[in-house]
Design goal:
The protein is of the alpha+beta class and about 250 residues long. It is built from 5 helices and 8 strands; from the N terminus they run H-H-E-E-E-E-E-E-E-E-H-H-H. The chain has 2 domains: about 5-160, no CATH class; about 165-250, no CATH class. It has a 4-stranded mixed β-sheet with strand order 4-1-7-8, with no helix packed on it. The longest helix is centred in the last third of the chain and has 31 residues, at about 165-195. The radius of gyration is 26 Å and the shape is elongated. It comes from Duganella vulcania. Keywords: Signal. InterPro entries: DUF3304.
């Protein structure tokens, strides 16, 4: 599992547990035949999607709303009530929105609603509700306290989403384009600073005074030799970072 996803998931789960402790009235007033559970989204497809789950028998019982990136997992949403005893009649309405990229690179929003069957509970008890978008775009739900990388995970696909080769190449190309843009920008700025230090320093001074005032408080202005040295060092550092990033991307 991606380390970042794992850390976010664990922190969010702790916060959710604290919420139930802080509001004991929830437990006291809750229906005895249902149990409130957390909601997660897992996306095995290459499209962004968001979701809301709703009880077809009770429209007030709903949750979700998060967006889940391609080949990613969402956080923890609160909450959805599941019957304590599973039955084959349990259904969950999934209202999803997809953002699909066309040949021109533009995104089209597509709305989809599906009435999904809820498979039997793992270990015979209701667990957290997982909204899953499969690689082919199929939407489904399962109830499980086990994560996708756990041996007892009941989902059709075992493990967290793994980006496709095409998606990884696309993301790498975008990252390379961005790194090269920053590299060209820093290189160009250094040339301009050398050829016309006053005009270039003045342009950056106005930006620094507006957005980085604390960094330039000890300089008298754009013609301050120390400020020009500071600016040159900052641009050289930016160029160095961009060069390293470009080289890293070329190696992978």
């Amino acid at each position: 599992m991606n380390f970042r996803i794992d850390c976010v998931w664990q922190r969010a789960r702790k916060l959710l547990a604290m919420a139930f402790l802080i509001f004991p009235a929830i437990g006291m007033c809750a229906k005895k035949d249902v149990l409130p559970v957390a909601i997660h989204g897992v996306n095995y497809s290459g499209d962004d999607f968001s979701y809301i789950v709703e009880d077809p028998q009770d429209s007030s019982n709903k949750g979700g709303g998060e967006s889940v990136a391609p080949y990613g997992a969402g956080g923890i949403m609160c909450c959805y009530e599941l019957p304590r005893v599973w039955s084959a009649e349990i259904k969950v309405k999934i209202k999803a929105k997809l953002w699909v990229k066309n040949e021109k690179g533009d995104f089209t929003e597509i709305a989809e609603t599906k009435m999904a069957d809820l498979p039997p509970y793992v270990d015979g008890k209701p667990g957290e509700l997982w909204v899953i978008r499969a690689a082919d775009g199929t939407l489904s739900v399962i109830s499980s306290d086990y994560q996708p990388d756990n041996p007892k995970w009941p989902g059709a696909v075992r493990g967290w989403p793994v980006p496709s080769v095409a998606y990884r190449r696309e993301r790498r190309a975008l990252a390379m384009k961005e790194a090269e843009m920053y590299l060209n920008s820093s290189t160009s700025a250094l040339v301009k600073l050398k050829e016309n230090p006053h005009r270039t320093a003045t342009e950056y001074w106005d930006l620094d005074k507006k957005y980085n005032a604390e960094d330039v408080v000890n300089f008298s202005g754009p013609d301050d030799a120390k400020y020009i040295d500071y600016l040159r060092s900052k641009l050289e550092a930016s160029k160095g970072r961009s060069e390293r990033r470009v080289n890293e991307l070329k190696e992978h």
